[in-house]
């Protein structure tokens, strides 16, 4: 009966350990996915910034060419207007991507905090489990009935 209880106890201990490892692994995977998404947002923001700088530079060049050439500036007026619209669009996209990156970073931080909390809880449970196992081995914990009935 004692060896049967110790086998059951070991089976429960292994199951708890495996479940905890699975949960921690899941959070690590989720955190990796969030970090990957954040990286792609940052990369996309860099591209948008470069595009915005190029369009702004082109717009500035057209603006400088505008004064003093009224006949030649009429065709460029449409180019300037379209470039200004593109600048506005790129600024909106940049702002959206910055907000998405900020949200992703906040989610990553929350997941990391939760993962750290789970790791601390896991360590504490392992320590508790170790102490209970030592007490069970030394006989300090009396074996009781598992059905919850009191001995009469």
Description:
The protein has 152 residues and is mostly helical. The protein has one domain (2-138): Orthogonal Bundle (Helix Hairpins), CATH 1.10.287. The protein is built from two helices and no strands. The longest helix has 69 residues, at 70-138. The two termini are 21 Å apart.
Q: What letter string, H or E per element, gives the SSE order?
A: HH
The main β sheet shows up as: none
- Envelope shape: rod-shaped
Binned strand content: under 5%
Kindly state the percentage of residues in helix: over 70%
Average residue pLDDT:
81
The counted number of beta strands is 0
Derived structural class: mainly alpha
Number of helices: 2
Number of domains: 1
CATH class: Mainly Alpha
What is the gyration radius calculated from CA atoms? 32 Å
Which ranges are low-confidence, i.e. pLDDT below 50, for 5 or more consecutive residues?
Answer: 146-152
* CATH architecture title: Orthogonal Bundle
Short description:
The chain has 152 residues and is mainly α. The protein is built from two helices and no strands. The protein has helices at 2-65, 70-138.
What are the key terms here?
2 helices, endoplasmic reticulum, Helix Hairpins, single chain, 152 residues, membrane, BAP29/BAP31, Endoplasmic reticulum transmembrane protein, mainly alpha
